[in-house]
Amino acid sequence: MWFCCPREENLMKIAKFKHPFGVQSTPGVLHEYSLVILEMDLLSGTYLLAVLLACIVFQSGAQEKNYTVREELPENVLIGNLLKDLNLTLDPDVPLSSPLQFKLVYKTGDVPLVRVEENTGEIFTAANRIDREKLCAGIFSENRCFYEVEVAVLPDEVFRLVKIRFLIEDINDNAPLFPSTVINISIPENTAINSRYSVPSAIDPDIGVNGIQHYELLKGQNVFGLDITETPEGDKWPQLIVQQILDREQKDTYVMKIKVEDGGSPPRSSTAILQVTVTDVNDNRPVFKENDIEVSVPENAPVGTSVSQLHATDADLGSNAQIHFYFSNQISSLAKRLFAIDNTTGLITIREPLDREESPVHKLTVLASDGSSTPSRATVTVNVTDINDNVPSIDTRYIINPVNGTVLLSEKAPLNTKIALITVMDKDADQNGKVTCFTDHDVPFRLKPVFDNQFLLETATFLDYEATREYAIKIVASDSGKPPLNQSAMLLIKIKDENDNAPVFTQPIIGLSIPENNAPGTQLTKISATDADSGRNAEISYILGSDAPPIFNLDRRTGILTAVRKLDREKQDRYSFTVLAKDNGMPPLQTNATVTVSVLDQNDNSPAFTHNEYNFYVPENLPMYGTVGLITVTDADAGDNAAVTLSILNGRDNFIIDPLTGVIRPNITFDREQQGSYTFQVKAVDGGRLQRSSTAKVTINVVDVNDNRPVFVIPSSNYSYELVPTSASPGSVVTKVFAVDNDTGMNAELRYSIIGGNSRGLFTIDQLTGNITLKEKVIASDHGLHRLVIKVNDLGQPESLYTIALVHLFVNETVTNSSYVQELVRRNMETPVGQNIGDGEITPQTNDYVKIIIAIIAGTMTVILIKKKKKKKKRSPKSLLLNFVTIEESKPDDPGHEHINGTLDIPVELEEQTMGKYNWATTPTTFKPDSPDLAKHYKSASPQPTFQIKPETPVPPKKHHVIQELPLDNTFVVGCDSLSKCSSSSSDPYSVSECSCQGGFKTPGPIHTRQPSCGLRLEEKDKSFALEENYQEMKPQEEKPYEMGTNNIRA
Fold first, then answer.
1. Segment Disordered: which positions (predicted)?
2. Do 296-356+366-377 and 63-169 have the same topology in CATH?
3. What topology does CATH give the domain 504-600?
C-alpha cells in the first residue's frame, strides 16, 4: 500500500509498500492507496490529523466487507467467501509460518450468528438463526439493521483484520395483530354522513412491504365504510366512515369485523370484532392548542419531573365540555412505563428513570375526549438528552485463544504477533461517547488502532521467558466527558518456555545386584534425571527401552524400577537394558542410560534326580562292592547351594553309595532265589544355608544265574508207586512226573527223560510235560514192579543242572496186597540206581509166610489205631495228623538179608490246610519301557516254586544235588482197595482225588493215624489253581516259602 507522512517542505512524498497479498482494485474495498499531499499555502491541522489517521488505518491492514443476508435462514447456508470476495492471493515470495487461516473474533460468551471456515474463508449461517425483529428491535427502516463481526486473517505475515457488516433483510415472518380482539367505538346518533372515526391500528413487527398494507371492513351492512390515512412516518391508520343516518332509538349497536393484511408473499392477516355503539349527541370535540409538541429531557431527570403540559378546549357547555386526557394504545409499552399523564390537567410527567441508551426518543400520542366518540389527537415527541453517565466498556476478543482466561504465548513468538482485538464503547453520545484506549505501564506489547474504537493488541518486542514469565496488562479506556469516566480491564499473558534442554541422568550406567526370589513389585532402585527447562518441558517421563525384558517395570513419573515377577537366577543371571528419560516438550527431547541387573543366587532349588525312579539289573553272582549303577543328580543353584551329597535311606546297610559320585555298590552277596529285588530311597542334600533335599526310588533287580537244580514235586516220594493195569493200551498215560526250578527264564526250562529201569522200552516219557505213557502192549513177562530212573534237567547256561527221581510202576491187573507191593518198593530202594529190577525178583506169588507176617502187622496196627482214637479228643475237620514214616533197617553184608526193624517217628501235627498246597506264584521281572531289557531271552512267565520239599534223608550241605532223595509220601498209604481209581480217575493229571482205605503195620507202639489219600492234595476250596500241560505259562499266586523237614514244617 501507499503510505505518507507530511513534512515541513509540504512536498509530495510517496513510498511504495508491497503487501504479501497481490490485491487488485475492487470497489468498496481498501487495497493499495496512494496518498498525495499537495503543496498548500494553508493546511489546517484538522486535515493533517485526518490524513495521519487514514495512513494508520491503511497500514494496519484493516478492511471492511458488506454482505446482505435474509433473516431466519437455516444453518450452513453459504453467505460469501472472503478469499474470493476480497481478491486475496498469496505472494509465493513471502514464506508463511503456518497455513492461511481465517479466524472469527468474537467476545467470550457470545454466540455468533455466522460461522467462518478457517481454511477457506467461506462464511455460513450458524445454528442460531438471525431474527431481525429481535436483533434490531425499534428500528423500522429497511436499511438500518446491521450485524457486525470481525475476522482475523492469519498468520502474522499476511495479517489483516476484516470488519464484516451484514445487512439483515426482513422476511414476512410476523402477522399484523390488533391490540385487542374486540374494538369498541361510540358514535353519536346525530353524526353526519361521511363523518370519520379513528379505529385502533394493528401492529406488525415486520417492515417495508412485509408491514401493514391494507385494512378491510367485513359485514359493514352499508351503514359504515372504512378508509385508511397514512402518517408522515408511513404508519397507516384506519378510519370508520358513517354512510347512513344513525338512529339510536331504532338500533343502538352494530357488530362488524375488521381485517388487517400485510404485503408479504404470501400475505399474513388477522381480524378483530368491531362493535359500534350509537350514543346521544355531543356535537363539539376538544381542540388541542398544539397538535405536535417536541421537548428535550435529560436522561438523569428525576421521577416526577414535568415533561410537557398539554392544553385543549371544548366549545360545548357543561359535562360535554369536560375534557379527559389519556395515552393512545398505539404508544409503545416502554413509553407507557416511563411516562404518566394527568387525566384532568394533561400534564405529562416522568414515571420511571429515563435511559437515553435504552431509547433516545419517545413518541407519545395523547387523546383528549369530552365523552364523545371522537377524541382529539396530539403527538408529543420526547428527546432524551445525554449526560456522561456511562463508563466506557472494554470488549476483548482473543485472536490467540486463552486458557482459563490467560493467553499462552511462546517466547519464540515473532514481532507483531496479534493477541487480541480490543473494542471500546461508550453508550453516551457526542463527546461523552468518544473513547481513547491505552496501557497503564511499559510492557512489550502495544495497542494498534484498526477501526473506530477498535485496537489490536500485538507484541512490540521479542519475549524472554527467563526474564519475565508472565504479564498482567492493564488496558484503560477513557471517554471525553467532563469529568471523564474511565474503565480498565486486565489481560493476562503467560510466556511459554521452549523445550531446548534434554534431560540428563545422574548416572549414565546404573549397576544393580538383586537376590532372586524377590516378591513381585519389589523396588530395585529409583532412577532420576534433571532438565534445565521448566514446566512441561522439565517434566520427565521415564520409559523402559525396547530391549528391556517384560519382567521389569519403570514408573513413568517417579522413575522407580521394580520387578513385576520373581527373578530366577537359574533362568537368567544377568540383565542389561536401556532406560529413557523423556521430557514433555514439543517436540520432546530424551536421553538414555544403561541398567545392568545381576541376579544373586539363593538356595531355591532342591537337588534334582535325572529320574524319579531308577531300575538297575545285576547278576546274582555280582561280588560284594561291585558296581551296581550310577545315580546322577543336579542342582540348578550355584556355589555351595549346588554342592550335593547323596545318602541311602532305609537300605538296611545292604548297599553303599558314594556321596559325591553317586556310585552304588552292594554290601551283600545276592541270591535271586532268596530275594529277587531290593528297593530303597536315595536322598540328595545340597550345601545351602537352609538345606534342601529330594529323594528318588532305587530298585535293584537281581538277574537270575543258573544256580538251582530242578526239584520234583510229583512223585512226592521215592517210595510211592503207581498201578499199571495189564489191560492198558499203548499210548495211554500211566503216570506223570512234575518238577520245578527256582530259577527263571531258560534256567527254569525243564526237560524230562528216562535214564534207567526201562531196559525193555516198555515206557516212554514226554520230555516237556513229564507224562509217562505205555509204549507197547503189556505181555506176561512185563508183570511186576518197574523202577524207572527219571532225570529232569534245565536249559540253563553255561551249565545245565539236573535231578534224578525214582518212579515205581506196578504192572498187574489189581493190587490185592498193597503191603506186599510196598515192601517190594522198600527193598528196591536198597538196590543201586544203575541196576534194573527184573520180574523174577518180586512177583505177586510170594510165599505164604510173608503174607501172614504182613497181615499180622496190619491187623495189629489197626487195633492200636482204633483204641488211640477213642482216647483222643475229637479233632477239628481242618486239623489232621501228618505222619512222616521213617524206616531204618540194619544192612548186613549179606545183600539178601530180609529182616526189617521197623521204627516209627511220631511227627508234629499240622493243619491240613497248610499241607498238600503248592504256591506257584512268582512275580515275573517286568522291565520298564525306558529300562534296558536285560532278560529278553528269559520267559517271564516261568513258574517258580515258593518252597522246596527237603529230603528226609540228610544229605551233604550242597546247594546243587544230582540225585533228589524224596521223602516218604505225606499221605502214606498202607493199603488201598481201589488204587487204580486213585491214580487214573481224575481228568487232570495233576489233580488227585481222595480215596479211603484201611490197613496198617504191626508196631510195638501207638501210631497216630489220619484219613489217607493217594498223593499231594492239589485242590482246595478257598485257593485253587489248575496246572496246564505247559506249566511255563502258568501264573500262580505268590505265597511265602515253606520248608518241610522230617519232623517239622517251618513257615
1. 938-958, 1030-1051
2. yes
3. Immunoglobulin-like (2.60.40)
Residue-wise pLDDT for 358-414, tens only, equals 889 999 999 998 877 678 899 999 999 988 888 899 999 998 889 888 999 988 888
Local confidence band at 231 (pLDDT 50, 70, 90 cut-offs): confident
3-state SS, 391-448, equals CCEEEEEECCCCECCEEEEECCCCCCCEEEEEEEECCCCHHHHCEEEEECCCCCEEEE
CA distance 117 to 128: 16
**Whether this model's pTM surpasses 0.85:** no
Please report where in the chains the cell 450468528 appears, as a residue: 113
Q: What pLDDT band is residue 498 in, cutting at 50, 70 and 90?
A: confident
Which residue ranges make up each domain of the chain? Answer: 63-169, 182-279, 296-356+366-377, 393-496, 504-600, 608-703, 711-824
Q: Comparing C-alpha atoms, which of 738, 786, 789 is closest to residue 762?
A: 786
Is CATH 3.40.50.620 the right assignment for the domain spanning 393-496? no
With vertex at residue 182, the alpha carbon angle to CA 178 and CA 188, rounded to the nearest 5 degrees, is 110
From the DSSP assignment, how many helices (H) and strands (E) are in the chain?
Answer: 7, 65
Buried residues in 45-60 as b, exposed as e (16+ CB within 10 A): eeeeeebeeebebbeb
Residues 711-824, CATH architecture: Sandwich (2.60)
pLDDT, tens digit, 9 for 90 and up, residues 901-910: 333 333 333 2
Instruction: Determine the CATH number of domain 608-703.
Output: 2.60.40.60
Q: What CATH number does the domain located at 296-356+366-377 have?
A: 2.60.40.60
Q: Tell me the three state secondary structure of residue 819.
A: helix
Q: Per-residue pLDDT averaged across 973-1001, rounded?
A: 33
CATH superfamily name and code, 182-279: Cadherins (2.60.40.60)
Q: 700: which DSSP letter?
A: E
Phi, psi of 43 (to 5 degrees): -125, 110
pLDDT at 943: 33
Helix (H) or strand (E) holding 849: helix 848-871
- Residue 206 gets which letter from DSSP? S
Fold of 63-169: Immunoglobulin-like (2.60.40)
The residue whose grid cell reads 552304588 is 664
Alpha helix segments (H runs only) across 884-1033 = 979-984
User: Which residues, including other chains, have CB under 8 Å from residue 463's CB and lie 6 or more apart?
Assistant: 409, 410, 411, 412, 413, 444, 495
The mean pLDDT value for 1021-1036 works out to 33
Distances (CA, A) of 569 to 322, 547, 598, 599, 686: 120, 19, 9, 6, 17
Burial of residue 783 (number of CB atoms within 10 Å: 0-12, 13-18, 19+)? middle
Phi, psi of 528 (to 5 degrees): -135, 150
Cβ pair 581, 503 in contact under 8 A: yes
Q: How confident is the model at residue 645 (pLDDT cuts 50, 70, 90)?
A: very high
Side-chain half-sphere exposure of 793, counting CA atoms within 13 A: 12
- pLDDT-derived band of residue 114, with 50, 70 and 90 as boundaries? very high
Cell numbers of 143, please? 436499511
> CA dihedral in degrees (275, 280, 282, 283; nearest 10)?
90
Q: Is the pLDDT of residue 19 over 70?
A: no
**Can you tell me the distance from the alpha carbon of 314 to that of 310, in angstroms, rounded to the nearest whole number?**
14
Q: Band the pLDDT of 1019: cuts 50, 70, 90.
A: very low
| Closest residue by Cα to residue 514 from 444, 466, 573 | 573
Contact 131, 139 (CB under 8 A): no
Q: Read off the pLDDT of residues 543-567 as tens digits, 9 standing for 90 and up.
A: 999 999 999 999 999 999 999 999 9
Report the pLDDT averaged over residues 590-594: 94
* Selected residue with higher pLDDT from 861 and 767: 767
DSSP 370: S
